[in-house]
Automatic annotation (TrEMBL):
Oxidoreductase is among the record's keywords: no
Protein name per UniProt: Subtilisin-like protease SBT1.7
UniProt source species: Striga hermonthica
Key words of the record: Hydrolase, Protease, Signal
Family of the protein in this entry: Belongs to the peptidase S8 family.
Highest taxon in the source lineage: Eukaryota
GO biological process, any: proteolysis
Domain spans labelled Subtilisin-like protease fibronectin type-III: 157-257
Xref: InterPro entries: Peptidase_S8/S53_dom (IPR000209), Peptidase_S8/S53_dom_sf (IPR036852), SBT (IPR045051), Subtilisin-like_FN3 (IPR041469)
One annotated GO molecular function: serine-type endopeptidase activity
Keyword S-adenosyl-L-methionine: no
Listed PROSITE patterns: SUBTILASE
A Pfam family reported for this protein in Swiss-Prot or TrEMBL: fn3_6
Domain Peptidase S8/S53 per the UniProt entry, residue ranges: 22-120
Length: 266
């Protein structure tokens, strides 16, 4: 609104938009999987807010970062990987404060297995790079976590909280990939967890044995096996599934990624 015709001034009303739908979404510039160096480890682990974040700013350069910008400001609106890092670091610090005895692997497990990757209606997060639904290579998990996850994965024998199966595309028959994992009860005594499985049925079938884990006491460790039976698919095909362990209150979730690659890459 122009409020003066002699000395031109522009008046605008500022407001904050809330409850924007869909939200959150995966940024177009977000780094993505698969893991080029070690495809057997699913990446990314997590994603977190990284677009247009209000953050502290150095007075050594102007807010645009250009040499001609001589302004000095205390804060700036920033996008990029430097923004998700403090978000996740802050969450890790909260977990460490609540559980000072936990090691780094336990903290990472808590963040990864209690984060979400869908909206409230269970549809996958939107990927702005494609305009379509995201997958575990895009989102990993989105950081909204429970400080008491119930169960934790450790790093013994690469006991990773997610699953990445690499299948030779040259195989003309079904290929079986087996994962063995252990879960540690960090919750109450006497909890029973049951698994639910989502399989990419056309490309692969996922099964878990046993389907129920009974924890009689805190810090008890239980083992299970996850098996992927993959069909013959074209080179470069990716398929995604998911498993969830739940006791009716806590949910420990892990994505499963199946990738058909050259045999020499495995």
């Amino acid at each position: 609104m122009i409020i003066s015709t002699v000395h031109l001034k522009l008046s605008t009303k500022l407001s904050t938009r809330v409850d924007v739908k869909p939200s959150p979404v995966v940024a177009a510039f977000s780094s993505r999987g698969p893991n080029i160096v070690t495809p057997e480890i699913l990446k990314p682990d997590l994603i977190a807010p990284g677009v247009n974040i209000l953050a502290a700013w150095t007075d050594a350069k102007g807010p645009t970062g250009l040499d001609i910008d001589k302004r000095k400001v205390l804060f700036n609106i920033i996008s990029g990987t430097s923004m998700p890092c403090p978000h996740v670091s802050g969450l890790a610090a909260l977990v460490k404060a609540a559980h000072p005895q936990w090691r780094l692997a336990a903290i990472r497990s808590a963040l990864m297995t209690t984060a979400y990757s869908t909206y409230e209606d269970e549809s996958p997060l939107l990927d702005l790079a494609t305009g379509s639904a995201s997958n575990p290579f895009d989102h990993g998990k989105t950081t909204k976590f429970r400080c008491d996850p119930g169960k934790l994965y450790s790093v013994n024998d690469l006991n990773y909280p997610s699953f990445a199966a690499t299948i030779p595309s040259s195989a003309n028959c079904k290929t079986t990939v087996v994962f063995r994992r252990t879960l540690t009860n960090v919750g109450e005594n006497g909890l029973t967890y049951r698994v639910s499985i989502s399989s990419p049925r056309r490309a692969a079938m996922i099964s878990v044995t046993p389907k129920t884990l009974v924890f009689r006491q805190k810090n008890e460790v239980k083992a299970y096996m996850l098996k992927v039976v993959a069909a013959h698919m074209w080179l470069g095909t990716n398929a995604f599934g998911r498993i969830e362990w739940s006791d009716g209150n806590n949910v420990v979730a892990s994505p499963v990624a199946d990738s058909w690659i050259n045999a020499t890459q495995d």
